TrEMBL record:
Spans traversing the lipid bilayer: none
Compositionally biased tracts (Basic and acidic residues): 331-344
The keyword Nucleotide-binding appears for this protein: yes
Record GO biological process: D-alanine transmembrane transport; L-alanine transport; L-isoleucine import across plasma membrane; L-valine import across plasma membrane
Record protein name field: ABC transporter domain-containing protein
Length: 344
């Protein structure tokens, strides 16, 4: 609680926002490569924070450090004041849920079952209780189903609860992933490129969904390349470039920062960038903020970072066709990590 006195001398009290996420000095090295270097980032209750940066900037690696998939080489991550345990299952149980850049649904399970999978961290019944279907287990199961249906209602897919996940259109599969993440009752939701491959209508729907999630008291940290989406959505945006945080601020501050534009155009950070370049690149009509165009340009031309990862992700991002792999075992980062890493 903070107390402030206004000019008229009246004293008012305001609830201090709680630090839901507090990452300090997070560094992740893979052999000689430092993918993330001394990154500090906080997310407060009630906030939607964006994490942007060119391909290969270290965004997903940073997410992996937050969610226990990687143990950071240096630094500390706290959730609501407590240092996070170093495994992803325990991180989820602590209150952080995430989605992945590439869809990881159980394609041959129903929509409802996929959400129920996300609920298992909150189900306390033991093995024998499940095998013998004791009354306690049945009650837990009914409660889980009720909550899963509530979530499907929330994302607008209750009417498809019995459909196979693989038969959903792409945009709905992405929403279903969000519902599955919400099933663990998180206090912080991490979304890794939630609108990748979506058309503008689907993107708009996800934007509305994220606002609704925030309104339910869940803080959100989101990685996205779609700048229009990010700057509309986020209270605060942090920019990663070559593993380091370049700038953090509100949308207006970030999108007008010349270093951000330069970074997206691939210019050296400390050289004075030309502000003319992005304007030249941007179509006049429906150009989003200048960095957005710059991002597209960077993606189109950036061969180093894109080669491999984008190809792999293009394949990965296809809707689940024959996905019998449990999501949790599929949680391994996209590249086999030679460095410190945890299984999901
Ligand atoms: N497991 C790993 N082993 C070795 N290097 C890795 C590993 N994971 C990521 N990297 C490297 O770390 C750097 C950051 O990658 P990361 O995927 O975090 O970037 P990103 O900002 O999420 O990129 P994109 O926007 O393309 O998804 C890249 O150079 C990448 O090749």
């Amino acid at each position: 609680m903070t107390t402030t006195t206004n000019q008229a001398g009246a004293t008012t009290s305001q609830a201090t926002p709680e630090k839901v996420l507090d990452a300090r000095g997070v560094t992740m090295r893979f052999g000689g490569l430092t993918a993330v270097r001394e990154v500090d980032l906080t997310v407060n209750s009630g906030e939607i924070v964006g994490l942007i940066g060119p391909n290969g900037a270290g965004k997903t690696t940073f997410f992996n450090c937050l969610t226990g998939l990687y143990v950071p080489t240096e630094g500390e991550v706290r959730y609501k004041g407590t240092v996070l345990p170093p495994t992803s299952f325990k991180v989820t149980a602590a209150g952080i849920a995430r989605t992945f850049q590439n869809i990881r649904l159980f394609g041959n399970m129903s929509v409802l079952e996929n959400v129920l999978v996300g609920r298992h961290t909150r189900m306390k019944q033991g093995l024998w209780s499940a095998v013998l279907r004791l009354p306690g287990f049945r009650r837990t199961e009914e409660e889980a189903t009720r909550r899963a249906m509530e979530l499907l209602e929330f994302i607008g897919l209750a009417h498809k609860a019995e459909h196979l996940a693989r038969n959903l259109p792409y945009g709905e599969q992405r929403k279903l992933e969000i519902a599955r993440a919400l099933a663990s009752d998180p206090g912080l939701l991490l979304l890794d490129e939630p609108t990748a491959g979506m058309n503008p209508q689907e993107t708009r729907a996800v934007e509305e969904l994220i606002f609704a999630i925030r309104d339910q008291g869940i803080a959100v940290l989101v990685i996205e390349h779609d700048m229009r989406f990010i700057f509309n959505l986020c209270d605060r945006v942090a920019v990663l470039v070559q593993g380091q945080k370049l700038i953090e601020g509100d949308s207006q501050t970030v999108q007008s920062d010349e270093r951000v534009i330069a970074a997206y155009l691939g210019e050296p950070i400390d050289e004075a960038p030309s502000t003319k370049a992005p304007a030249d690149e941007a179509p006049t009509d429906e150009a989003p903020a200048a960095p957005a165009k710059a991002a597209e340009t960077a993606e189109d031309t950036d061969t180093d970072a894109d080669t491999g990862s984008d190809d792999a992700e293009a394949a990965d991002d296809a809707p689940a066709e024959d996905d019998d792999t449990p999501a949790d075992t599929a949680d391994a980062p996209k590249d086999a990590a030679p460095g410190k890493e945890n299984d999901a």
